[in-house]
Design goal:
Layout lengths: L37 E10 L3 H14 L3 E10 L2 E10 L1 H12 L3 E11 L1 H27 L3 H33 L1 E10 L12 H25 L1 H23 L1
Parallel strand pairs: 1-5
Antiparallel strand pairs: 1-4, 2-3, 3-5
Keywords: Coiled coil, Membrane, Transmembrane, Transmembrane helix
Protein name: DUF4349 domain-containing protein
InterPro entries: DUF4349
C-alpha cells in the first residue's frame, strides 16, 4: 500500500508540505546569496529650449550608455510640448547617463531612490528552491501510488505547487530585471510661443456705419430717458404756477 500523500505547502512553513522535510529549511545548496542587490530609480524633469533637438540628443546619449527606451508618450497642452520617457540602463552607467541627461536643459526636479532587495531576493530564491523540492517529492510519491484516489489527489497537489513555482519564478525574474537595469523616469517640456491676435483692419465705411449706430443709440437713449421722467413733466406746470403766486404775494407785502 502506497504511503499517504503529503499536505500542500504554504509560504510560512514549507516543511509541512511533505514528510521527512525538516523545518525551517535553509537556503539549498547551489543557491548563492549575492553580496548586495540594489535597485536604482530616478525621476528627472527638464525644461528644454527645443524638444526635437533634445530628443535627438537623448537618443544618442541612451545608446552611448548602452541603455534603451522602454516607454514614451508625447502631448501638447496648456502652452507646453511635453515628452515622458522611461529609460532603462545598467547600474554601472546609471549615474553617468543621469548627469548627461541633466545637460539637455534646465533641471527643475530631480529625485533619486535606492532600494536594497538583497534579503528579499534571497528569500524568494529559497522559497523557489523549496517549492521545487516539494514538487519532486510529490512526483516520487505519484510514482509509488497505486489507487486512483491517491493518484488524483497527488496530481492535484502537484498542480498547486507548480502554480506557486510559476508565481515565485515570475517574482524572482522581476527582481532580477529591476536589479539588472536601473530606471530613469524623464519628463521634458518646451514652452510653446502663444500667438498674439492681430488687430482687425476696419474700413472707412465700417467706421461710418458704426458711428451712425452709436449716434442713433445715443439719441434713443436720450428719448427713453426723457420718457422715464414723465412725473416731472406733470409736476412742472404746478410748480411754475405756485412760484408765480408766491412771488406776487411777496411783492404785494
Amino acid at each position: 500500500m502506497a504511503p499517504p500523500p503529503p499536505s500542500a505547502p504554504d509560504d510560512a512553513a514549507e516543511d509541512a508540505a511533505a514528510p521527512g522535510v525538516a523545518a525551517p529549511l535553509p537556503i539549498p545548496t547551489g543557491v548563492v546569496a549575492p553580496s548586495r542587490l540594489l535597485i536604482y530609480h530616478a525621476d528627472l524633469r527638464l525644461k528644454v529650449p527645443s524638444l526635437p533637438r533634445a530628443s535627438a540628443s537623448l537618443d544618442s546619449l541612451v545608446r552611448r550608455n548602452e541603455g534603451f527606451l522602454s516607454a514614451a508618450t508625447e502631448t501638447r497642452a496648456d502652452g507646453e510640448w511635453r515628452q515622458f520617457m522611461t529609460i532603462r540602463v545598467r547600474p554601472a552607467r546609471f549615474h553617468a547617463l543621469l548627469a548627461a541627461l541633466g545637460g539637455l536643459g534646465t533641471v527643475e526636479e530631480k529625485k533619486l531612490t535606492t532600494d536594497d532587495v538583497t534579503a528579499q531576493h534571497a528569500d524568494v530564491a529559497a522559497r523557489l528552491a523549496t517549492k521545487r523540492a516539494v514538487e519532486k517529492r510529490y512526483i516520487d510519491l505519484l510514482g509509488r501510488a497505486r489507487k486512483i484516489s491517491e493518484i488524483l489527489e497527488i496530481e492535484g497537489k502537484i498542480g498547486e505547487v507548480r502554480e506557486e513555482i510559476e508565481s515565485t519564478e515570475s517574482r524572482l525574474k522581476t527582481l532580477d530585471d529591476e536589479v539588472g537595469y536601473s530606471t530613469i523616469s524623464l519628463a521634458c517640456y518646451q514652452v510653446l510661443p502663444q500667438p498674439v491676435p492681430e488687430a482687425p483692419v476696419v474700413s472707412f465705411a465700417s467706421r461710418v456705419v458704426e458711428s451712425f449706430y452709436t449716434g442713433w443709440t445715443l439719441l434713443t437713449g436720450l428719448f427713453i430717458g426723457l420718457v422715464a421722467i414723465w412725473p416731472l413733466w406733470l409736476l412742472a406746470p404746478v410748480t411754475w404756477w405756485w412760484l408765480r403766486r408766491w412771488r406776487k404775494r411777496q411783492l404785494a407785502a
